[in-house]
């Protein structure tokens, strides 16, 4: 039973971490695009 709980907790953490990395990738992409745009406009 303990093992099952551990597995569930781990999979939750993994999926949460995956979402967080996807979010940060999106943020980084936005920043990169923003920097490129500002360089072009200046």
TrEMBL record:
What ranges does the record give for the region Disordered, renumbered to this chain?
A: 1-42
Q: Where is the composition biased (Basic and acidic residues)?
A: 1-10, 17-36
Superkingdom to which the source organism belongs: Eukaryota
Q: What is this protein called?
A: Uncharacterized protein
């Amino acid at each position: 039973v303990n093992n099952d709980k551990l597995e569930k907790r781990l999979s939750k953490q993994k999926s949460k971490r995956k979402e967080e990395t996807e979010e940060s990738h999106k943020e980084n992409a936005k920043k990169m695009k923003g920097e490129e745009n500002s360089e072009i406009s200046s």
